[in-house]
Amino acid sequence: MWKEERFQKIRILIQTYGRVTTTRAAEDLDVSKETIRRDFSEMEQRGELKKIRGGAIGLVPEHEPPIALRNNEQRKEKRAIAKAVASRMKSGLTLFVDAGSTTSILAEELAKVNGITVITNSLFIAQRLSDEKCRITNSITTILLGGILHDSLPATFGEKTIAEIYRHHADITLVSPVGLDARYGATSFDPAEAEIARAMIDNSTLSYILADSTKLGRTSRFGFCPSENIDALFTDKKARGSMELLKIRDRIEDVVLA
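The structure corresponding to this sequence follows.
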């Protein structure tokens, strides 16, 4: 059994039961306990679980409010973050952008950048970047990933979406997590959203995380990127001097306070 297959089965066990013993996982996956211990260690580094004596438990979930509410939270800070990110974009870049309230605001700033290609699973972002001015005047190419429509978010998810991501390679992935913690990295509440973000990061040269100050130090259920693998963090000025940011700076060199 491939490692990622084991990881997925371990995720399902923890999602179902909240915790899993080393013995139970080894029996269910038909591998040695030592293999499971190594898997637990790597998944803990990814921010997907927490090791305990004799097994592992899921992270304490940080529930994510509906997208309609998130769209109205921290709008000023999200706008500042979006402008800072867009200022780094230049013609010729190919970008992966996931679905969310922060990246929806980012789309409005990316619409002003000439000559970029944006690959996204967000229906809103695809629609925003495919109007006449973006397509013709600014020469923006937008690719909407296929897949199954999410029940609470206007975006595509699922195996087809993941497969399409792996057909592309981007220069930069731009994603916004539910939480960002120095130890557990970037996490999401929804496993489908985490899988999309992980696949995008795996298929890009650089990974940029967009997280306003309220998300720092928070963790949710599913990790998708360890702190050490984040190339740049964009947050807002309210994070300056916070203990959470100080810890994150030990792991991420490029931190932008917008």
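The chain has two domains: 3-57, 67-257.
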